Amino acid sequence: MKTEISRRNFIKASVGAGAASLLSSGKNRLEAAPAPRKPVVISSGNGMRAVDKAMELLRQGQDPLDAVIAGVNIVENDPDVTSVGYGGLPNEEGVVELDASVMHGPTHNGGAVASIRNIKNPSKVAKLVMDRTAHALLVGEGALRFAKAHGFNEENLLTDRARERWLERKEKLSDKDFWYPPKSDELDEDVRAFVDAHGTINCCAVDTKGDLAAVTTTSGFFFKIPGRVGDSPIHGAGLYVDNEVGAAGSTGLGEANILTCGSNMVVEFMRDGHSPEEACLRALKRIVEKANLWPDRLNERGLPSFGLNFYAVNKKGEYGGANIWSGARFSLHDGTQAKKVESAYLFKRPPEKNR
User: Quick check: 16 and 308 in contact, CB under 8 A?
Assistant: First the structure.
């Protein structure tokens, strides 16, 4: 018995010493990391208003998570944005389902909601999941009831423009049903111009203390199967934050990102010493390697037929963005001004497909 107790105490002491050593090491790394001279906010191409608002709040000394959420709320509330929040394109049943996640660097905590209906700002609900529950993700009816319990009002998120686009898709989907499309001249030109696509907004920030945060919010694929969830509400895919290293987020084909935990990979590459841009490119290379196993996701050249973007900022305030294909841009506020920046890329888009 004495031997067993001694061995147990020895193991306990060894583990304690090891943990203390790790904590001490981590503390030293944190103290040694230089804080950025200026705050930085990076977002997807549709995030110019988001980076402006987030920077305004960072300059006021607000928490970086509150800042980026306030930034994307502008886009969530805009009925003319068909890929996020109010006005987002619906699923195949004509219902708008939203996903969002948040992650806070200083506390290494996060929250998310998926397939939530009738709530305009899923990013705010995701933060409440982080702050007011012991969970990281709520979905569907449970997420809606949680939002309503905290004072969110239900509202119809399907705008007339999005509804007309949904009807056009449904009417043209088959010639073997009872849905007839309108005459082409009866369809509003603005509605006709919609593309069958998906869209998302991601926003990451670092403040003057070196604290990081990120948010991602989306309405997902247009005409998706009800209940489909992409990468946006998945920590490690749609976004990831490690306050010792940096933050990363993504837009594009969520399925490819989920299956590779892409945003986590970007942060880990930054941990290894790579710049944010190089970390984004390395993660994309890994995803392209896996895409070779998905023949239905390849084009005639044997390359990915989809797009995927990463955006990243490290603790020092260095930033970068990358896409599988050329022609993409991201939004940035570097503490001086808001601007669009060309993304790095793996493959040059064929001329006829350049944007």
Answer: no
Sorted by where each begins, the domain ranges of the chain are 35-158+194-347
Q: How far apart, in whole angstroms, are the C-alpha atoms of residue 265 and residue 285?
A: 11
| Cα distances (Å, whole numbers) of residue 98 to 23, 94, 246, 333 | 39, 13, 26, 26
Q: Are strands 319-325 and 308-314 parallel, antiparallel or unpaired?
A: antiparallel
137-139 and 109-116: which strand pairing?
parallel
Judge whether residue 196 has pLDDT over 50: no
Tokens found for residue 27:
């503390």
Element spanning 344, H or E: strand 344-347
Could you tell me how many residues make up the chain?
A: 355
Q: Where are the alpha helices (DSSP H) in 112-234?
A: 122-132, 140-149, 160-172, 189-192
The answer to whether 68 touches 311, Cβ cutoff 8 Å, is no
Is 200 an annotated catalytic residue? yes
What backbone torsions phi and psi does residue 112 show, to the nearest 5 degrees? Answer: -160, 155
Q: At a CB cut-off of 8 Å and minimum separation 6, what does 51 contact? A: 41, 42, 43, 71, 203, 331, 332, 333, 338
What is residue 258's three-state secondary structure?
Answer: helix
**CATH for 35-158+194-347 (3.60.20.30, 3.20.20.70, 3.40.50.10090, 2.30.42.10):** 3.60.20.30
pLDDT per position as a tens digit, 139-165: 999 999 999 999 999 999 999 999 999
- This prediction has a pTM of 0.85
Say if residues 255 and 294 touch (Cβ distance below 8 Å): no
Which residues does residue 99 pair with via DSSP β-bridges, in sequence order? 218
Q: Which one from 82, 107, 159, 200 is the annotated catalytic residue?
A: 200
